[in-house]
Amino acid sequence: MSVRASHRLDAIPTYQPGLTTAEVLARYGLDVAVKLASNESPYPPLPAVQEVIRAGAAGLNRYPDAYARTLRAQLAERHHVEPEAVAVGNGSCELILLAGQAFLDPGTTVVHADPSFAIYPHLAAATGAESVAVPLAPDEGHDLMAMAAAVDERTRLVVVCNPNNPTGVYRSAAELEEFVQLLPDDLAILIDEAYFDFVDLAEAGRMMSLARSRSNLLVTRTFSKAYGLPGLRVGYGVGGAGWIGALERVRQPFNVNALAQAAASAALEERSAMAERVAAIVRERDRVCAELAATGVPFTPSRANFILLGAESGGSGLHEALLRRGVIVRDGAALGVPGRVRVTIGSPRENDAFLAALAQVNQFETAMSPEG
Ligand SMILES: Cc1ncc(COP(=O)(O)O)c(C=O)c1O
User: Fold this and answer.
1) Tally: H helices and E strands in the chain
2) pLDDT tens column, 268-313
3) Atom from ligand 1 closest to the CA of residue 96
4) Nearest residue CA, atom 2 of ligand 1?
5) Would you tell me how many other CB atoms lie within 10 Å of the CB of residue 84?
6) How far apart are alpha carbons 216 and 195 in whole angstroms?
7) Beta-carbon count within 10 A of 143 CB
8) Ligand 1 atom at minimal distance to the Cα of residue 222
9) How far apart (Å, rounded) are the C-alpha atoms in residues 241 and 257?
10) In this predicted model, what pLDDT tens digit does every residue of 61-101 receive, in sequence order?
11) Whose alpha carbon is nearest atom 3 of ligand 1?
12) Cα of 92 to ligand 1 centre, how many Å?
């Protein structure tokens, strides 16, 4: 007889992982492939960060600092808050999931956009709450007014992803400030800024500033994207005492491992090297967008380190056609945007490989079409 799991599990969507490079090489008999599927950085951790990770191995017989004091203090200093206003997690995903545990109960709702980051519907499913998924606006960014209208007396949590994954669309600080003003002061709002570093606008840090004065806000960021440390799992949030206190109560004591704490601390010290890397990725994003525009391939303008191609960019078989050519991109079907693909910005060489493969697919499509 099988075990009797909670009926809540029935509602939890299963995460659909992308294909690994080894799987693609084996499936298509290829020698090389480039992986542009998981919004990762093309750069390995900086040498100083790698050194700290190597050195940290010798101390792994000890538990990590349960409070991540050093990292918390650094983050607090960077964001001009007290360490008590910072939560550190096993990736920012952990903090997002903990927010569900901390704020949601059966009979309550969480409001988020759709399509957006795939984890958000889990918050409701895992807690027996209701997920209110608000369709994106026609420009594929959050429809903030519709989200505000979806909030009612049952709502305990609102999640905004900015820039939005998988579309890359950014909502301005002024729009978000107006949105926050519309919502009750005691309603928890989580602003997921996983792709914040790639927003090349002076105003990009304004929600973090707002989190210092509006205690119902939590702004989350991650070391997984710009800092290139997704393999270690570390993210953080800055917010009011109610927010941080709630997250502290539901987390496990040693949630961020010792190597992750040390590496994130070291990465924060490498400010100029990180800024150079981010600038290079943003330049590449803009170059890829310009090439797509020049060749008439439809895409959604992005402020993140990925681009969502339009439905007409190569037919429904585009994902498969790119895989065959050794370019691993993310199938939109797994992201709530069927028929489309999301491509991560990689190194110049990887991006060239993607553009060349896309051009081949499009030439083939044109040749095969009735008019071609
Ligand atoms: C919008 C968004 N938020 C959060 C995350 C989670 O990142 P991590 O848990 O690695 O910090 C991701 C990862 O892809 C993301 O796309």
Assistant:
1) 13, 13
2) 999 999 999 999 999 999 999 999 999 999 999 999 999 999 877 7
3) 4
4) 194
5) 12
6) 21
7) 18
8) 11
9) 24
10) 999 999 999 999 999 999 999 999 999 999 999 999 999 99
11) 194
12) 6
